[in-house]
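Long-time lurker. I teach an intro course on protein structure, and each term I like to show students one example going from raw sequence to a predicted 3D structure in token notation. This year I'd like something fresh instead of my usual example. Would anyone be willing to generate the tokens for the chain below so I can use it in lecture? Attribution to the forum is fine with me.
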Amino acid sequence: MVAIVDYNMGNLGSVLNAFDKVGVKAKLVSKPEKLKEFGRVVLPGVGAFPDAMEHLKSSGMDKAIVEFASSGKPLMGTCLGMQLLLDESEEFGINRGLGLIPGRVQAFDKSRFDHTLKVPHMGWNELFIQSQNPLFEGLPDAFYLYFVHSFHVVTESRYVIGNTYYGYTFASAIAKDNIYGFQPHPEKSHNNGLKIIKNFASL
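-- Reply from a regular --
Happy to contribute to a lecture. Here you go:
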């Protein structure tokens, strides 16, 4: 069974529905001590990085997520949830993340954009697979997913399993051992996103 972390910062209904669509039982979990009872955990998120970390810390969920990750069981962060996996973010000052994957979160550098591009990066865009991973099973080398974000992660190339181009190339999917992150919203990405969700549930 999959635990979806409920910390008042995500489109939880959409995530829950996505697992239901692929025939996987998932449950919203708000009590940190409950995470260890599950085989897989999803950390979703919509909103600002510092607010999200404050919510996680105030409940003790931050420590529970780190403890779960150390168990070796699969953990996936999506959108803001992916960003929280990293060491720190520059959103509204420098804020510490969960530190599960080395790197930082930074704003899109609009000086590298042409005049037609806007921030946030919103809508459908391609993810180009950089490194084969079980979460990509059954998907082509490049496929479309749905994005909504103003910040992106910067990490070592060995952790980047997928890239996307928006003004310049940025990491849109990352992985380190049993920990995975997707900048787009799989739950809003129709069949391609559902495939990722199903693959995650099959790990």
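Some talking points for your students: The radius of gyration is 16 Å. The helical segments are 12-21, 49-59, 61-70, 80-84, 190-201.
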